[in-house]
Every structure is written in C-alpha cells, then in structure tokens.
C-alpha cells in the first residue's frame, strides 16, 4: 500500500521551500467555528473541535481568538458564522494534475471567482463538481511518533481498526483508517503509548502524475501557492509526484 503519503511528503517539502505558514489566523478560526457549530462546544466531547483547536494552537492562534471562535460557533457571540459553509471545488493544474480544494466561505460567488482567477493565471482550469474527485478517496490519518517496535504499532493499529500504516521516517508512521473511525484510532494509539502528533482527514489519489519538467513544476507550485493563500481555502490536495531534487531546484 505504499505511496499514500506522497502528497503529505510533497506538502512537507513544499513548506520548506516556501518557508511560510500554511494557514492564517482567520482560516484556523473558521475551522474552529464550523467544528463548534457542528457539535458540542466542549472539546472533550467534540473530536473535530478538539483537533481544530490543537492545530490552531500549534500554528500560534492566541487563546482569546480560539475562545471567541468557539463562542461564535456555539451561537453565544454575535457574528456571521452561521453563514459559513464547507464547499469542495475541483480543477486541473498544468499537465493535467488533478486538484481538490476544500473551502469555508460565506460567499460562494466570491470564492469561485477567486479560485477561477488563481487557476487561469497559473495554467490551470477550475472544473465542474465531480471532474476530478472520482480520482480520490478520503481517509482518516494519524501521524505517529516514537515508534521503536513496528510489531507494537501493528498490534495497536489493528486494535484501533486501522486499514494499514506506512513508515515515513525513522520512528514516524502514518496510520490510515476509515473516516468515521479516526477518533477511535487516535485514542487507541495514544492509549498504547504512541505519540499521535496529528489526526486529520486526507484525500488520497488512486494515481499520480509524475512532474519532471522544471517549468511545469514551477507553474504547478505557484498555482498551489495562489490557491492556499486565499482566505476561504482551508486545504489543497493534488495528485502529483515530484522529486526532492526538483523541489530543491524550485527553491
């Protein structure tokens, strides 16, 4: 089952190349608002909210911003959070690379227009719903550290109803499961003494496009940068492979 972590690896490499934060405070606040709106306001009883708060804190979002976002999502603070909706957009990048964009927006028309401009300026096209999503499947993924015995990881993963895992670095692995089982898997791994540094939903492509030409790579990374910089965009996923050497050239 190797290869499912390739986009995550590219994102990590790209972050080094870009040397910038992946999300703004506004984006993290919106994620917390939506999570608080979709369930209980107590993070202990709302896995989506708890995860959003943990990631927001890691990104440096102040506690007062977090508390305000929870209050907005719970309806105890005035604001327009009720109009926020989650939308998935789809399109093609240079060389036919498939791209999925997850957004939280209070204005569909504005978001679609901003995305269309970003695509057109960077050799891509914003497509219709369903044009590329069939190439991807969504999974729950736990990033696990402090692995000294793979047999123990295997046992814990099976107990947590995981589908498979991949070692990505020494003592670090990504454990994959069905979307609805992510919280159970995360809790099981923690109970078994593993350090779970991230738990997220990730789109995984069935087939990847190999990018080897520097010009194409440059245009593609610029497009993804443009998409990720949009305030309404929460996450961008693409089905391409790129060598570390080419990434270094792009730097």
UniProtKB/TrEMBL annotation:
Domain TACO1/YebC-like second and third, chain residue ranges per copy: 85-240
Subcellular location, principal: cytoplasm
Alphabetic keyword roster: Cytoplasm, DNA-binding, Transcription, Transcription regulation
Residue ranges of domain TACO1/YebC-like N-terminal in the record: 5-75
Keyword hit for DNA-binding: yes
UniProt record, GO biological process: regulation of DNA-templated transcription
InterPro entries per the UniProt record, alphabetical: Integrase-like_N, TACO1_YebC-like_2nd/3rd_dom, TACO1_YebC_N, Transcrip_reg_TACO1-like, Transcrip_reg_TACO1-like_dom3, YebC-like
GO molecular function, one term: DNA binding
Subcellular compartments: Cytoplasm
Pfam families assigned: TACO1_YebC_N (PF20772), Transcrip_reg (PF01709)
One GO location term (cellular component): cytosol
Family: Belongs to the TACO1 family.
Name of this protein: Probable transcriptional regulatory protein DP114_30680
């Amino acid at each position: 089952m190797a290869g499912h972590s390739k986009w995550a690896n590219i994102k990590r490499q790209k972050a080094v190349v870009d040397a910038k934060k992946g999300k703004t405070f506004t984006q993290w606040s919106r994620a917390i608002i939506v999570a608080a709106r979709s369930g209980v306001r107590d993070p202990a009883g709302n896995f989506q909210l708890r995860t959003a708060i943990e990631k927001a804190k890691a990104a440096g979002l102040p506690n007062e911003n977090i508390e305000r976002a929870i209050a907005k999502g719970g309806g105890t603070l005035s604001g327009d959070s009720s109009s926020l909706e989650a939308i998935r957009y789809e399109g093609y990048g240079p060389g036919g690379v498939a791209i999925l964009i997850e957004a939280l927006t209070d204005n569909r028309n504005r978001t679609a227009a901003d995305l269309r401009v970003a695509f057109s300026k960077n050799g891509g096209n914003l497509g219709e719903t369903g044009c590329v999503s069939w190439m991807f499947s969504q999974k729950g993924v736990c990033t696990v550290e402090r692995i000294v015995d793979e047999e123990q990881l295997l046992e814990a993963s099976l107990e947590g109803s995981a589908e498979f895992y991949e070692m990505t670095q020494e003592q670090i692995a990504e454990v994959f499961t069905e979307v609805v089982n992510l919280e159970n898997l995360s809790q099981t791994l923690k109970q078994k003494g593993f350090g779970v540094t991230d738990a997220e939903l990730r789109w995984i492509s069935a087939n990847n496009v190999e990018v080897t030409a520097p010009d194409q790579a440059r245009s593609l990374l610029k497009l993804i940068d443009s998409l990720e910089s949009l305030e309404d965009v929460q996450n961008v996923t693409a089905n391409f492979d790129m060598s570390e050497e080419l990434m270094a050239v792009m730097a």
